[in-house]
Amino acid sequence: MAEFTIRPLSPFGAEVVGAPPTLEFSEADFGTVEEAWLRHGILVFRDLSMTAEQHIAFTRRLGPLHIMTPMHFNLEGHPEVFVVGNAEEGGKPVGLKDAGMGFHSDGEDKAIPNAGSFLYAIQVPPEGGDTLFADMYGAWDALPDDIKAKVAGRRARFSRVTLHHVHYPHLPALTEQQKLDRPDVWHPIARRHPRTGRTALYIGRWAVEIEGMEEAEGKALIDHLVKFAQAPERVYRHRWLPGDAVLWDNRCTQHCATPFESSRYTRRMHRTTLEGDVPQLAA
Ligand code: SIN
User: Fold this and answer.
1) Residue 231 φ then ψ, to 5°
2) Protein residue with least CA distance to atom 6, ligand 1
3) With contact defined as beta carbons under 8 Å apart, do 84 and 271 qualify?
4) Ligand 1 in contact with 257 (CB < 6 A)?
5) Residue 31 contacts by C-beta under 8 Å, 6 or more apart in sequence?
6) DSSP 39
7) Which helix (H) or strand (E) segment is 280 a member of?
8) pTM higher than 0.90, yes or no?
9) pLDDT of amino acid 10
10) Residue 283 — pLDDT band, cuts 50, 70, 90?
């Protein structure tokens, strides 16, 4: 019998209380964890002590892993682990600084966005650097009927090329090759989750246009949906301690990193990322 319990969090998500620190589960227990992940959208673990191999092995049980490109910030010897934060080794940054500011889901600007991500806290500041998670099933369910009718059947254009300088002002501009590698993509705004069949609002920080709408009208609707998705009553704030990890489902949640005093503190997080599938329009 499982020695851990699944405790719902407010306003959504759940904590796995008493999981083995290495996340090595039996088949049956892994099934319970996976089912809880699909049901709650985010799962919080605490007091973990995982090697990179164990982090990778747990995530791989959920599906094929995605290797982040460019590879600059992947852990040496473990390209499946993407390092986030301001940590340095030998005077050189080992992670992507200021990653994930602004609500988004991972890979939303790609033709095949990532199904899920698993972020493990190695070193965290004593204050700041929280991560916010928004419930996108809840956002869809709460949308007024007239807005649902407006977006039903429509897709939004997500564009890294248009917004790279806005979301990553501290990074070099995209090269012509990088622009070719990250073409704009269209995704349904009402997205059917491939495993649960539920409908989630699918919008985020790279969305720039809605199909069949005048530019200004589409932009205004995107701004409205983005704001609506971030309503505090549907947002869980995770205040990190070292050894915490959060597994999220990018198909029905969004997340957003928050700032901290990076001149005083180090924040180092290790993320594994799951491959996904082409987003499907909800019926
Ligand atoms: C991310 O967007 O994957 C990083 C979130 C965080 O560092 O809080």
Assistant:
1) -55, 130
2) 257
3) yes
4) yes
5) none
6) H
7) strand 280-281
8) yes
9) 98
10) confident
